[in-house]
Amino acid sequence: MKNSCLKTNQLIRSGLAFALLISSFSIAACTPRDKPSHATLRTQGGMIGVVARWLDEYQAAWNAGDAVRLGRMLGLNTAEVLTLQQIFQERKNLRVTIEDVYIEPLSSSLARATYVRRDLWTDRSTGRPRSSSGAYEQAFQLSDGELRAISLQRR
To answer: What is the pTM of this model?
Structure first.
């Protein structure tokens, strides 16, 4: 089962996910036990551990409402940081979780992470609970001991 899970993951990464979903090959063979938890990822060395710890800090910055730290992490300009501050004003009790993390080292200094981000908050103007979620792919580069997010795409 583990070998078929590995092959499935390789095919998914190579862009054949749609074909797999249509075929009789079962992706369900990849049980959660086959995929390391985010907690396990952050203890690993190399790019996997560095990126997992960056994602932890990213989630913590969102949950703390820290637009300045997010700006630094994402390389945002002053206007973009101000926009983030406005978002924090509008979204009371914002809670961000990052789940289903998969980190693929591309070299000793490059990596790609895919994850699902879930946001829960109370709309300040209406008082109603709100939520959003999405799958993301993010690329990272390690340079001079500092990890930088170099791209982010919603999938």
So the answer is: 0.72
